[in-house]
C-alpha cells in the first residue's frame, strides 16, 4: 500500500459531542471580488472579536486557495507571522478585537466539484452549503458564526452584465477596461453557508409581491434569455409560497428583493442563500411541451422549500451540522403541507410516503443507517440524506399530530420568536414545542437519536359474546450500526374501527400513543364485528406487521374512510400477492383483480387517487420486504400479476383510458388526475400483451400536446419488444436533443426499462456523445436511474455492479459529492444471494483500493462494507 492509501484509510470523524462555541466571532465581513473564470481575486476584510477568555489563535478554514497577502489592523504580515496548511490559516492575535484582511486567488473554471465559486455554462455562481465557503476565502466555515455581509463584485461588463449577491444592491457603476461593479449589503447576520454570488448574461422574469404588512417585494427569476418563457410556473409558485407562509405560519418576507437564479450544473435541487436562491434549472424551467406534471409539482415544491428556508433555516439557522434536520426536516414538512394544500391531500401523502419508503426505509435498514440527528460524520455532504430530510419531516408531522394543529402553531411561533437571529439545535425546537403546549416530549426525543425504522406488530381480536375487542400492539427498533440496544419509541397511531357489515365507522378516529414495548387497548360496546384501521394517514413512519387476510385488506381498500388507509390496504394486498408467488406458495391473483376493479369503478373517488391506488408496488419495494431479494423472481411475479390485471380488466382499462383522453392540456388537479389515470391505464393495456398496445402507445406518443402524455407513452414503449420502441426513442431524441432537461429524460427512460438487455443499453449509452459525468443531472439520469432499476442492476453476471463502480470511480475524480450519492445500491449486498453479495462486496473493495479517493466516497464505501 502506498502512503496515500494508508493516509486515506483513516480520515478523522467529527463528533457531535465535541461541539465547542467558536473561539472568535466575526460580526462584520467585507468581500471584494475581481471576477474572472480563470483567475478570480478575493479580498476579504474580517472584523474579529475574541469570544470569551482564551489564548487561541484566529483559525480560518481554507481549501485550495492561493494565499497572496495577510494584513492585521492594516499591517502586512510576513510569512512566519501566521501558519498555513492545506486546511487552515492560523493567525495569533494579541488583543480582543482586530481587523484581518486576506487576499487569495481562485480558479472558478477549474472547479468541477461545484462547491465554492464555479462556472456553469458561462455563468459564475456559488454553492457554499455545507462547507464550500472555505473554497472561496479564509473564514471560520461553521454555521454558528453569523456576520453582516458587504459584497463588492467587479467583472467584465459584456460577459457578465448581471452581478448579484445577498441583500440589497446599494451602489453600482462602471470600472476601467470594460469592467463594471455592484455593491451589496445584507442587513441580516448570516452564516457563511448562506453567502452567494452570481455573475452572468442573464434575463429576468420580474414580478412583485405585497406582504401582509403592505411591503412591496421585487421578485426576479434569472435565466438565460431563451429560457424566459419557461419561468412563469416557478414565479407563480414563489408568490403562492410567500402568501402561504404568511397565512399558515405567520411568516413574512424580510427584504425588498428576492432573486432566484437557475443554473444547469448543480449538485442538489436548489439552495436557500439569503435573498439569492440558486436552483438546479430542472426545478425552475417548465412548459407543457418539455415538463411533466410531476416536474411541475416538483418545481412548486422546491421553490416553496427554498423560500420557506428564509425563516426555517436563515432567520433561525443551525448551531452545527449535526442539527441539519432542524432546518431540513422542518422545511420539508412545510413544503409537503404546502403541496398538499395545492391539490388532493391524500394523493400528496401517498407521494410523500412513497418517497420515504423508496429512499429512507432502505437507508434505515442498511449499513448507512444513522439517526435524524447523527452523532458523527467524516464528510458532512454524505448526511444530506432521506433520513435527515424525509424522516426528519415525519418527526415534525408526528409532533403536530401529538400536539394538535393549534398548539403546534403556538410552538412554531415560540420557536421563531425565541431563536430569531440565532443558531439553534433540534433540542431547542422540541423544547419550544413542549413549552408552548405543555406536552412532555421526553420519550419522543428518541426519534432524533435512535436510527432504524420501528416495527410495530398488531394483533386484533374480537369477542362477539362480550362485544369487545383487544388491540395488542408491540414494537421493536432494529439494531443499526453503532446502536445495538434500543429503547421503546413514542409512536402516534391514528386508529379507527369500521363495522364489518355496514362499512361505517363504529369507533371514531383516535390517536393511540404506543410508548411501551407491549401495550393493549380495549374497545367496548361493539355490537357489530369491527375491522381495524391502523396508522391512518401514515401518522408514524413505522412498518406494521399485522396478520390480515386478503378479505380484510380488500374490505379496507374499498371501505376505509381514510383515503391513505385505503391505498395502504391495497398496497399490502398487492405485496402479499407478489411475495406469496416469489416464495413459491402459489398465489391467487383474484382478490387483487377484484379490488382494483372495484376501485376503478368507484365514481366517488378522484381520478388522481384511483391512479395511485391501482399501481403495483415497485420491484425494489417488494424486495425490501424480503430477507433475501431474488430480483428475477420478483420481476417475474410482478409482471405476471400486471399481465393478469391487464387481461382481466382489459375493458375497464380501455374505458378509463378513453375517459381520460381528449382534453386539451391544462395544469390543474383535475386535468393532472386524468393524465395520471391515462398513463396507468395505458401501462396495464400494454401489460396485457394486447396486439394494439404498442400502436395505442405510439399514437399517444406522437400526438401528445404535453410531456406528461408523451413521456408516459415513451416509458411504455421503451420497456417492450415492439418495433415502435426504436422509432419513439429516435423521434424523441431528434425532437429534444438541444434541450438538456428533456434529454435527461431520454437517458432515464432507457435506464429504467424493464427489458432484458437494459445493462447493455446503459453501457452503450455511457459512450453516447451526450452522456456526461461532469453534469450531475445527466450523470444521475443514466447512472443513478440504473442503480435504482433492481432487476437490471442486479443482473446475475455482476456487470451492473461493475458498471456502477466504474462510474463512481470516474466521477469521484471530478465531483466527489455526486459520486458518493451513487453508492447506496452496492451497500445492499447483505440482502442478496451469496454470489451477488460477493460480487457487490468485491466492487466496494475495488473502490476502496483506488488511489486518491475522496473523503465522500471513502466514507460511504467503507461504511457499506462494514
Ligand atoms: N440546503 C439545500 C436544500 O435543502 C441543500 C443543498 C443545496 C446542498 N446544495 C447543496 C447540500 C450542496 C449539500 C451540498 O434546499
Ligand atoms: Zn432544504
Give an overview of the whole structure:
This protein is of the alpha+beta class. Among the domains are: 1-201, Sandwich (Immunoglobulin-like), CATH 2.60.40.1730; 316-449, Neutral Protease Domain 2 (Neutral Protease, domain 2, Orthogonal Bundle); 455-540, Immunoglobulin-like. The strands form 8 sheets. It has an 8-stranded mixed β-sheet, with no helix packed on it. A 5-stranded mixed β-sheet has the order 17-18-19-21-20, covered by helices on one side. A 4-stranded antiparallel β-sheet has the order 10-11-16-13, with no helix packed on it. Strand 17 (203-210) and strand 18 form a beta hairpin. Helix 6 packs across helix 7 (405-419). The longest helix is centred in the middle third of the chain and has 20 residues, at 345-364. It is globular and about 90 Å long. Residues 1-8 have low confidence and may be disordered. Residues 305, 309, 328, 331 line the site of zinc ion.
Amino acid at each position: 500500500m502506498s502512503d496515500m492509501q494508508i493516509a486515506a484509510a483513516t480520515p478523522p470523524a467529527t463528533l457531535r459531542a465535541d461541539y465547542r462555541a467558536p473561539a472568535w466571532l466575526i460580526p462584520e465581513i467585507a468581500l471584494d471580488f475581481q471576477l474572472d473564470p480563470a483567475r478570480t481575486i478575493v479580498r476579504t476584510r474580517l472584523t474579529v472579536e475574541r469570544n470569551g477568555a482564551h489564548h487561541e489563535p484566529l483559525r480560518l478554514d481554507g481549501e485550495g486557495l492561493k494565499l497572496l497577502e495577510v494584513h492585521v489592523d492594516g499591517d502586512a504580515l510576513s510569512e512566519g507571522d501566521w501558519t498555513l496548511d492545506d486546511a487552515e490559516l492560523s493567525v495569533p492575535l494579541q488583543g480582543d478585537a482586530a481587523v484581518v484582511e486576506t487576499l487569495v486567488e481562485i480558479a472558478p473554471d477549474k472547479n468541477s466539484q461545484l462547491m465554492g465559486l464555479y462556472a456553469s455554462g458561462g455563468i459564475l455562481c456559488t454553492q457554499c452549503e455545507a462547507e464550500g465557503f472555505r473554497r472561496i476565502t479564509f473564514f471560520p466555515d461553521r454555521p454558528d458564526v453569523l456576520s453582516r455581509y458587504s459584497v463588492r463584485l467587479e467583472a467584465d461588463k459584456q460577459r457578465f452584465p448581471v452581478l448579484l449577491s445577498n441583500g440589497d444592491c446599494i451602489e453600482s457603476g462602471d470600472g476601467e477596461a470594460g469592467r463594471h461593479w455592484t455593491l451589496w449589503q445584507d442587513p441580516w447576520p448570516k452564516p457563511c453557508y448562506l453567502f452567494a454570488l452570481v455573475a452572468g448574461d442573464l434575463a429576468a422574469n420580474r414580478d412583485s409581491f405585497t406582504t401582509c404588512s403592505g411591503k412591496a417585494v421585487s421578485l426576479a427569476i434569472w435565466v438565460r434569455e431563451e429560457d424566459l418563457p419557461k419561468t412563469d410556473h416557478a414565479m407563480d409558485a414563489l408568490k403562492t409560497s410567500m402568501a402561504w407562509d404568511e397565512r399558515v405560519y405567520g411568516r413574512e418576507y424580510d427584504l425588498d428583493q428576492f432573486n432566484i437564479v437557475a443554473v444547469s450544473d448543480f449538485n442538489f435541487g436548489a439552495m436557500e442563500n439569503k435573498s439569492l436562491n440558486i436552483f438546479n434549472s430542472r426545478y425552475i424551467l417548465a412548459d407543457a411541451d418539455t415538463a411533466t406534471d410531476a416536474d411541475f409539482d416538483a418545481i412548486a415544491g422546491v421553490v416553496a422549500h427554498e423560500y420557506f428556508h428564509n425563516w426555517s433555516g436563515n432567520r433561525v439557522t443551525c448551531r452545527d451540522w449535526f442539527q441539519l434536520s432542524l432546518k431540513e426536516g422542518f422545511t420539508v414538512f412545510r413544503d409537503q403541507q404546502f403541496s398538499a394544500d395545492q391539490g388532493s391531500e391524500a394523493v400528496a401523502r401517498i407521494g410523500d410516503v412513497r418517497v420515504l419508503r423508496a429512499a429512507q426505509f432502505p437507508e434505515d435498514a442498511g449499513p448507512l443507517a444513522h439517526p435524524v440527528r447523527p452523532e458523527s460524520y467524516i464528510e458532512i455532504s454524505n448526511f444530506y440524506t432521506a433520513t435527515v430530510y424525509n424522516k426528519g419531516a415525519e418527526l415534525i408531522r408526528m409532533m403536530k399530530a401529538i400536539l394538535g394543529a393549534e398548539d403546534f402553531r403556538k410552538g412554531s411561533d415560540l420557536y421563531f420568536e425565541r431563536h430569531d437571529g440565532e443558531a439553534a439545535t433540534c433540542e431547542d425546537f422540541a423544547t419550544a414545542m413542549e413549552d408552548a403546549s405543555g406536552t412532555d416530549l421526553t420519550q419522543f426525543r428518541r426519534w432524533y437519536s435512535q436510527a432504524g425504522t420501528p416495527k410495530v406488530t398488531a394483533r386484533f381480536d374480537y369477542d362477539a359474546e362480550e362485544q369487545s375487542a383487544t388491540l395488542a400492539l408491540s414494537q421493536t427498533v432494529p439494531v443499526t450500526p453503532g446502536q445495538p440496544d434500543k429503547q421503546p419509541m413514542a409512536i402516534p397511531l391514528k386508529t379507527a374501527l369500521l363495522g364489518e357489515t355496514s362499512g361505517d365507522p363504529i369507533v371514531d378516529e383516535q390517536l393511540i400513543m404506543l410508548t411501551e414495548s407491549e401495550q393493549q387497548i380495549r374497545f367496548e360496546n361493539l355490537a357489530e364485528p369491527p375491522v381495524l384501521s391502523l396508522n391512518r394517514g401514515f401518522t408514524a413512519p413505522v412498518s406494521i406487521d399485522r396478520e390480515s387476510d386478503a378479505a380484510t385488506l380488500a374490505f379496507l381498500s374499498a371501505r376505509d374512510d381514510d383515503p391513505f388507509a385505503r391505498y395502504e390496504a391495497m398496497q399490502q394486498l398487492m405485496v402479499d400477492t407478489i411475495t406469496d408467488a416469489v416464495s413459491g406458495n402459489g398465489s391467487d391473483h383474484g382478490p387483487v383483480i377484484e379490488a382494483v376493479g372495484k376501485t376503478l369503478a368507484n365514481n366517488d373517488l378522484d381520478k388522481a387517487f384511483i391512479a395511485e391506488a391501482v399501481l403495483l408496488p415497485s420491484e425494489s419495494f417488494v424486495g425490501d420486504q424480503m430477507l433475501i431479494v431474488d430480483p428475477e423472481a420478483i420481476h417475474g411475479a410482478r409482471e405476471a400479476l400486471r399481465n393478469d390485471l391487464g387481461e382481466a380488466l382489459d375493458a375497464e382499462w380501455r374505458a378509463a383510458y378513453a375517459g381520460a383522453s381528449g382534453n386539451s392540456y391544462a395544469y390543474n388537479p383535475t386535468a393532472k388526475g386524468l393524465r395520471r389515470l391515462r398513463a396507468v391505464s395505458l401501462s396495464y393495456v400494454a401489460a396485457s400483451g394486447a396486439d394494439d398496445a404498442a400502436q395505442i402507445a405510439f399514437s399517444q406518443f406522437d400526438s401528445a400536446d404535453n410531456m406528461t402524455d408523451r413521456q408516459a407513452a415513451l416509458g411504455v414503449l421503451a420497456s417492450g419488444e415492439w418495433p415502435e420502441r426504436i422509432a419513439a426513442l429516435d423521434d424523441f431524441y431528434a425532437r429534444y436533443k438541444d434541450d438538456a432537461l428533456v434529454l435527461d429524460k431520454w437517458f432515464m427512460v432507457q435506464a429504467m426499462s424493464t427489458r432484458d438487455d437494459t445493462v447493455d443499453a446503459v453501457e452503450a449509452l455511457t459512450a453516447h456523445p451526450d452522456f456526461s459525468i461532469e453534469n450531475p443531472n445527466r450523470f444521475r439520469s443514466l447512472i443513478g436511474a440504473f442503480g435504482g432499476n433492481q432487476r437490471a442492476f442486479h443482473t446475475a453476471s455482476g456487470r451492473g455492479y461493475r458498471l456502477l463502480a466504474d462510474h463512481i470511480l470516474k466521477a469521484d475524480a471530478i465531483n466527489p459529492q455526486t459520486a458518493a450519492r451513487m453508492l447506496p445500491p452496492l451497500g445492499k449486498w447483505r440482502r442478496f444471494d451469496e454470489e451477488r453479495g460477493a460480487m457487490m462486496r468485491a466492487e466496494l473493495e475495488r473502490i476502496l483500493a483506488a488511489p486518491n479517493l475522496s473523503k465522500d466516497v471513502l466514507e460511504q464505501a467503507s461504511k457499506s462494507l462494514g
